[in-house]
Design a protein that fits this description.
disordered C terminus, two-stranded antiparallel ribbon, about 180 residues, globular, alpha+beta, disordered N terminus, Arc Repressor Mutant, subunit A
Length: about 180
């Protein structure tokens, strides 16, 4: 796992979305790291699982399973069955290589290999559609204390925060000028 306090950098050049540029830049290294992670964990990153992970890295925005099917069809010419893609997504999430954003019923790649019990905060930009993720030891402790005090057994520890990223705020990108799922 990478830096436990990871947050994304919002450096923008030439008006391009920092999420998009950062995502594209880290994709090749993240895919190689995913293969190593799976090998180290005794997991098999099959061709379909890798292809779905590549589809997640092909955009900085969360995508639905059906968007992943479309991306696979565009790159391979073969339309995968939804059950095949959902199984691949389930594997990627269990392996800490992807996350599901419940509020959007969509998925994003995760180069940090978070495990299901690690709290993750998703900062979802309503303007550009980009998603940053962050973790925090103090948040993890506070959340653990909260769920324990209620006798609650969480399935996932995910917090989704919607708003405007630093780039969109700084560049005053109007909400109506953007489109996202």
């Amino acid at each position: 796992m990478s830096d436990p306090h990871h947050t994304h950098n919002h450096i923008h050049e030439h008006g391009h979305c920092a999420h998009e540029a950062e995502h594209a830049a880290r994709a090749p290294e993240a895919l190689a790291a995913a293969a190593l992670h799976c090998n180290d964990q005794g997991l098999k990153l099959t061709p379909i699982r890798r292809a779905v992970l590549e589809a997640l890295y092909s955009t900085h925005r969360p995508i639905s399973a059906y968007d992943a099917i479309d991306a696979l069809a565009a790159s391979t010419g073969k339309r995968e069955a939804p059950v095949t893609v959902y199984r691949a997504l389930d594997f990627l999430m269990a392996a800490g290589l992807a996350h599901k954003l419940e509020s959007r019923n969509a998925y994003i790649a995760c180069p940090f290999h978070h495990m299901n019990d690690e709290p993750v905060v998703f900062l979802i930009c309503e303007r550009c559609g980009g998603v940053d993720e962050a973790t925090s030891d103090p948040l993890a402790r506070a959340l653990s204390g909260l769920v324990e005090s209620h006798g609650f057994s969480p399935r996932a520890r995910v917090i989704e925060v919607q708003g405007t990223c630093a780039h969109c705020t700084t560049n005053a990108i109007p909400l109506s000028a953007t489109s996202h799922p």
